[in-house]
Amino acid sequence: MIRRERIAGETVDLGAMTITPEYEAIGLAAPGARALYQRPTAIRVERDATVEWLTVPDVTRQGQILLYAGAALCGLAALLVSGARGRTR
Amino acid sequence: MKDIGDGLFANLIKTQEQATELLNRLITTARAESVYGEPIERDGVTVITASEVMVALGFGMGSGVGAESPARKDEQESAAAAMGGSDFGGGGGGGGGGYAGARPVAVISIVDDRVTVEPVVDATKLGLAFFTFAASFIVVVGRLLRAAQKSD
């Protein structure tokens, strides 16, 4: 069973400002196995009756996805080129 | 023999339940505010770290009792009687493993009334991904060049 939820963390009071961090938790439960993955998503900044949301970007993960997707596309292109060459022979 | 087998299986089920309970407890412990660190304040600057956390645990166990083959039963019984033991054979085993890791994602810094989120870049991971991409790109370009040369 896979469960995914957004959880608000403990609120931090800093004078006139209140910060509430939020994170995403993905849990996997199988017979004899458990896995839990948590990543920060955003922080909620509250001051003077105004609420501001700041996202927490995961630059490393975004870069990895981009580069590995590029590598996969290159691999696919290499296979297509090989296939096209095989057909023309 | 059935009694011994039942006892072994009942014991195994009890052990599995205990192991599952332990897994649940470990996961709950890992959940407790591990993503955002405690605020650290120095010289008017408050810093909160944000990390990605992954915990995975698993276990497996099994047991078996020796089959009572009619052809070998007399032989086993006589051997067991000679040794003064029972004619029962069985065994069991189990194992488990796990992984726990955390990676810093960003640092939240608060200076006066200004809140900023500064991302943490893992150059090693990005470098490895870049080299993978570069290698694939070189292979594609090489194949395209070879295909172009052959078609000429």
First-last Cα distance of chain A = 50 Å
Residue stretches of chain B low in confidence (pLDDT < 50, at least 5 long) are none
Number of strands of chain B: 4
Please report the number of helical segments of chain A.
1
* Class from helix and strand fractions of chain A: alpha+beta
| Oligomeric assembly | heterodimer
- What distance separates the N and C termini of chain B? 81 Å
Largest sheet of chain B: 4 strands, antiparallel
Residues in helices of chain A, as a percent range: 25-40%
Element-level helix/strand string of chain B = HEEHEEH
The average pLDDT of chain A is: 88
Taken from the alpha-carbon principal axes, the silhouette of chain A is: elongated
- As a percent range, the share of helical residues of chain B equals 40-55%
User: Could you give the count of β-strands of chain A?
Assistant: 5
List the chains of the largest interface with their residue counts: A-B, 48 and 55 residues
Q: For the residues shown, what is the average pLDDT of chain B?
A: 79
Radius of gyration of chain B: 31 Å
Largest sheet of chain A: 5 strands, antiparallel
Encode the helix/strand succession of chain A as letters: EEEEEH
Strand content of chain A: over 45%
| Relative strand content of chain B | 25-35%
